[in-house]
Structures are given as C-alpha cells and as structure tokens.
Amino acid sequence: MDTPFEVSVLLVEDEFINAWALANALKPHCKIRHASTKDEAIYWVQRESFHFVLLDIHLGQYTEAGIEILPLIKRLQPDCKVLATTGYGSEKDEARFLSLGFDSFYSKPLDEQKIVEEIQDLKSRRSVA
C-alpha cells in the first residue's frame, strides 16, 4: 500500500507570533521544521529535503538575510520552492524578490490560506502522478 505523500516545509521566521500562527495553519497539511535564524535555516537545508521554504527576508538584525541564503537553498535543493515572506509589500519589492529567484512572494500580514492552497496544490499533483 502506498504511503500518503507528505509535504515538507521549512518555516524560517524570527518573530514568534508569526511563526506560531503560520505553523498552526500549516500543521494539518504538512510536516514543518522551524528556524528562527539564518544559521538555523542553513543547518536544516543542509540536513533535510524540503518541498517548500517559507523564508522571511528580514531575520533579526540582518535586514536581507533571506536574500543572502537563497542561493544556497537553490543550490542544495533545486526542486524546492522558496517563498519570500516579508513586511516589504510594494509591487516593486515583489518584482525584485521574484527576479532574485524566489518562487512566490507573500507580504505580511500573511494570508495563511493562500500558502496552504499552494501546499495542497503540490500534494494533489503528487498524488495524481
């Protein structure tokens, strides 16, 4: 009997309340690892495979830490979708982050339902394949 496909997500978010809210919304739909720093994110990306990385752009004192580690994530896990999560919300910001290689862009406050839909879409495509 086939095992159900489980989506694996790395949630990189330094603000506790944001991480808690998003993790609770995602928990029924996927396996979640959480990192609150750039170093923790690098640790997990080097040790586990993920389908998605929800990557906060601004981590602690590092204004663009998410941008700094994006190339490493893409190199180590080329099939992983990396979603930028940020307080920067203009169309210009979105265009910039997408041009840098992020697969999707979510401005805070996050619409957890849209992120869940993206995960469910991957699950449904994998279960058909």
Describe what this molecule looks like in 3D:
- This protein has 129 residues and is an alpha/beta fold.
- The protein has one domain: Rossmann fold.
- Helix content is 46%, strand content 21%.
- The protein has helices at 16-26, 38-47, 65-76, 91-99, 112-128; strands spanning 7-12, 30-35, 52-56, 81-86, 104-107.
- It has a 5-stranded parallel β-sheet, with helices on both faces.
- β1 (7-12), α1 (16-26) and β2 form a beta-alpha-beta unit.
- α1 runs parallel beside α5 (112-128) and α2 (38-47) packs parallel to α3 (65-76).
- The radius of gyration is 14 Å and the shape is globular.
- The mean pLDDT is 90.
Task: Report the top-level CATH class.
Answer: Alpha Beta
Share of helical residues = 40-55%
Distance N terminus to C terminus? 16 Å
Q: What general form does the structure show? A: globular
CATH fold annotation: Rossmann fold
| Chain-averaged pLDDT | 90
Strand order of the largest sheet: 2-1-3-4-5
Uncertain parts:
none
Determine the structural class based on helices, strands and strand pairing: alpha/beta
The largest sheet, given as strand count, sense and whether it forms a barrel, is: 5 strands, parallel
Tally of alpha and pi helices: 5
What is the number of E strands?
5
Question: At the fourth CATH level, what is the homologous superfamily?
Answer: Response regulator
